[in-house]
Amino acid sequence: MGRHFNFRLLFRLLGMLLVIMAFSMTIPVCVSVYYADGSQFGLLISAVLILALGLFMRNILGNGASKVLQERESYFYTAVIWIVIPLVGVLPYIFTSTITTFTDAAFESFSGFTTTGSSVLSNLDRLPEGVLVWRSTSQWVGGLGLILFVVALLHRLNEGSARLYEAEFSGTLQRRLHPRMKRNVMLMWVVYVSLTLALFILLIAGGNTFVDSFCTALSTVSTGGFMTHSDGLASFSDFSIGCITLFMFLSGINLALLFYFFTGKWRKLLCDEELRRYLMLFLSVVMLCFLGFAVGGGGFTVHNIQFSLFHVASTLSTCGFYTASPAVWPMTVSVVTFLLIFVGASAGSTGGGMKIKRLMIMSRYVRNYFISMLHPRAVMCVKVNGNVVADEYIRRVFSFVFLYLMLVAVGAFVLTLCGINISNALCMAAANMGNLGPSPVINNLGASLDYIQMLPVAKWTVMSLMLAGRLEIFAIVAILLPSYWRKR
């Protein structure tokens, strides 16, 4: 494999993404200049360096790259791209002196691009506006997927585009909106941009500043969770919180289904089993949380209803936003919402976690197994939306869930070796593996989210969990296997 590895194509793809990253820094630079926040030169230098590196990779190292892409190469490309881009993303933090150490800058960058939302920055209210915008921009860029930027721009890599697409979404049965890959990805981007723009307009109409509205819109639709104030969304109005709650909920739905919603194809929405489970789970947990807060001493108030809706939407979508919580927080609510961290959002959404569709497939397989024990001659199969799920995919689902839980356990174990107590370690590992980041449920389970105080080893462990959770494990695990590197 080594002699035939298409490194020129890898450099070309990386160069294209770096050029996109450089141009995505235009808005942060303009915001910084407008507010004269002192970070404009650092952001501009970072953009120029990233642009130069991108053009060098694309036009020199990637010059004459073959458009042939093998299936095994797609996993390597995906993993390398998702490692290199966040590492280059440390430059704006370093050059603006926002963060002084490479490890902390890498932590912030990986958290941004993987849409996790954990942060080593403690005083967000004093952060330059340009840097705030860059943090949210990195989440928005990584929200739909770095590979999808490349797929949208490629012209002569249709089969290779499909392989890259499947490598980034290796753990889900991703629904396609259009037979042609490029058209399919462009439609996904249309939905993604439309949601972001709609929320931004609503937040501006709600009386929020440009920076708060822009950053919050990008972080919400990408389910990233980076916020502009240290107290979270406590300063936002009830109208703004309501809009954010709605869009967090929408962002946890498969983008293909949202496209059907906007185009009036209601029957496809009503027939989707995962969407129905998503709605049922959301409403059930909201009711459970509301009853928990009411019985716990908060009473049957409108505030408790609003907070329950907000909190469940934030956790289930893995957005991780937080705001002022009720004075009494029952442990039952904490435990239930902690379990939601593992469940996550719908397949094909920007959310993290194990995804509802996988859990549906697992539960139906287990149900069929017990039925076959009672009726050995019965022929059973797992179906989703009336379609039979292949045995190969079922095995992949079980493998994914096993690896997911194993990585959480191993990550928590490493964190305990770094001096973090077991409850904190488990909460941190689960939250970052699920790309959830900050959440009030974690604090109420006894965990501290003061990442800045952790040892460098602990920070890199958390970053590894972020990356594995964002790439849904398989692309990372594949390239770590010795058999992957053997020549065929």
Question: Can you give me a brief rundown of this structure?
Answer:
The protein has 488 residues and is mainly α. The protein contains 23 helices and two strands.
Defining key terms:
mainly alpha
Question: Topology of this structure?
Answer:
Layout: H1 7-24, H2 26-35, H3 40-61, H4 71-88, H5 91-95, H6 102-113, H7 129-144, H8 146-153, H9 158-168, H10 181-205, H11 210-221, H12 238-251, H13 255-262, H14 266-270, H15 273-298, H16 302-316, H17 331-343, H18 356-374, E1 383-384, E2 387-388, H19 391-417, H20 422-433, H21 440-444, H22 456-470, H23 474-480
Antiparallel strand pairs: 1-2
Helix pairs in contact: 1-3, 1-4, 2-3, 2-7, 4-6, 4-9, 4-23, 6-7, 6-22, 7-11, 8-9, 8-10, 10-11, 10-12, 10-13, 11-12, 12-16, 15-16, 15-17, 18-19, 19-20, 19-22, 20-22
Strand order of the largest sheet: 1-2
Rounded radius of gyration (Å): 22 Å
Low-confidence stretches: none
Helix proportion: 55-70%
Give the N-to-C terminal Cα separation.
Answer: 6 Å
Helix and strand run:
HHHHHHHHHHHHHHHHHHEEHHHHH
Tally the beta strands. 2
* Helical segment count: 23
Largest sheet: 2 strands, antiparallel
